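Summary for the steering committee. The consortium agreed at its last meeting that each partner would contribute one worked example illustrating the joint modelling workflow. Our contribution is presented below. We chose a case with several input lines so that the handling of multiple components could be demonstrated. No manual editing was applied between input and output; the record is shown as generated.
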Amino acid sequence: MLIVNHLVKKFKTTIAVDDLSFTVNPGKIFGLLGPNGAGKTTALRTILNIIKPTSGEIIFNDNPITNEYYNIIGYLPEERGLYKRSKVIDVLLYFASLKNVSKNDALERSDYWLKELKISEHRNKKIEQLSKGNQQKIQLIAAILHNPQLLILDEPFTGFDPINQQEVKDLILSFLSEGKTVILSTHQMDLAEKLCEDILLINNGKAVTSGNLSEIKKNFGGNNIRLGLNGDGTFLNHLPEIIKLDQYKNYTDIQLKEDVLPSEFLKKLIVKVDVNHFSIIEPTLNKIFIDLIKENSIAV
Amino acid sequence: MKKTLAVAKWEYIEKVKTKAFLISLILTPLIIVSFSVLPSLLFKDPAPNTEIVGVIDTSGEYFNELEKEFSEFKLPDGNLSYVLVNLSYKDKNFEELISTANKNINKNLIEGCLIIHQKGDDSIFAEYRSKSIGNFKVVARFEDALSSIKLRKKLEEEGIDTKIISYFQDRVKVEQLKLEEGGKVSSKDFLTTFFVSIIFILLLMMMVVYSGQMLVRSMIEEKSSRLIEMLISSSTPDELLNGKLIGLSLLGLTQIFIWMIIGTSLVASALVPMDAFSNFLPMLIYFILGFMFYSSMFVGIGSTVNTEQEAQQITTYLSLVLMLPVVIAMPSIQNPDFLMTKIFSYFPLTTPTIMLLRLNAETVSSLEILITVGIMIISILIVTKISAKVFRIGILAYGSKPSLKEIFEWIRE
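What follows is the complete predicted structure of the assembly.
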């Protein structure tokens, strides 16, 4: 379990991380979400012990961070790249040696993961001879070779085709089943929605919302419907039950006031216009993200 | 420490395998040899051939004696250095003789011609004509020979014993020697001194530039691919920096070792005189210290760089700093006691090069060697400390190149 308490990181003129507190539970994927420049990378770097926080504490499995901690964390940075002119197996052994893994263990585990990700035949090739997807797999192996207790993945799925994405997803899930702690930072809300149980959404270094994803969805205003109409729908703009509406080509997404029952609303509509689609929808994480960030930015 | 060694091992092995290293290993001495040894081979006594020299001696008193004296000079292969030809034909007058000699010189039939003018009194006056007036050696030999012949003749006339005459004529020669620490003497000349020092300085320069570039380039690769983040989430920046420095130093030592083998074979093949390396140990120390000093500087500066172009700029600046001592090399080697030379000896950027020069040009006291080596070691430690501070922040600063002001702030942090 990773506990972050009142984490603050100030640079000369800016506050990159402003009083963040959260808990990452083992066995679950924790999503760290936020727009570009929100302070995700800085937050991750302090958790990784790359930079020192201005104040606040980071506690992992009841211990504060020391240099020993380097050997139990694994990190996959957002931008990918490896020593292009070096051999695959040499690069893997180097990263393992930096995590204090013995050479024999490193060899054994490298071969295991290369086989698991179906790239054993590239073992003795140079990195630059591999396809981009396979290079990313090598980097992922380098991040997990030492069997880390805490795995931090920054955009792990970008650049992978759907088949490889599935393999990577399986790999992450296998880590979870061993009771490890995983932090996932991403912009891909659909993936975060599928994988993360807990999330922390930050903007301008501050927490916008955090907690269990389904709770967040429930609290976000569950009164959403999707409506398809034959004919003119402009009268919708004047209905008092509607808080907000997004009009698309074939349908309209509508947020109703809390006390309005969707079925009552439908009854009211049917007398006025021809309805060809009506469904109750949960807000997507994508929508929550966009709405909250917009709201937050206006408030700031 | 374990991780430092892991980094050092990786940096060393991955770089030793590169083509760039192999090329620098072979190309550097090749360039230096072609710059330094070849010209010295070209200008070294171009003709160890027998020279034919004409003599016009209307008195007929000197030619035979001269011929006898000049038969003493032998080429290394045992042949005569000079063959003297008597051009004093009886049927021609003095002017005709001279114009014939001139023609023969112009046609390259003879190297030159000595013309002896006898004056009314006992004194004589001679001139040497040739196409080039740079042949000091033969002129000096004629002067010596003529003076001694003249003296002998006079003494014989006065009826002095031939033994005493030969005693008079036995000239005392003064040989110029350089006194070394501990009373040893060596007979190096200016050219050898300059040449050996310059070879060392050129090697140091090229090594610093090559390996510095290699280091900066690999750090750019690590930064642009964000590999650096994986590295510093595995080890402390200090471990990484020290590992890189050790790896680079090992790389340098490998280069020195291989060059030493090449150097030894050069000495063995007598292209470079052995006594040129009498100061080898202190020279090696300055060489290694110089390399380490510049390497530790490169690690710090390299961490602030983001693109290949910036790297090129920075290596150019640093090479210019390295060039500075070579510019002041000439005056300092001719006059090692020159005040500026002394000052630059204690300035860490120039200490290695200046000391490499001074070691060969004069006798440097052990105290001075001790102090300068001490200065170098302290400077290396300080520069490494500063570099570590810059490195810690520089490796995480992407985007625009940090300004000098920012870098100073990093150092103070």
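Chain B has 16 helices and six strands. The interface with chain A takes residues 2-3, 6-7, 9-10, 14, 18, 221, 224-227, 229-236, 396, 409 of chain B (CB under 8 Å).
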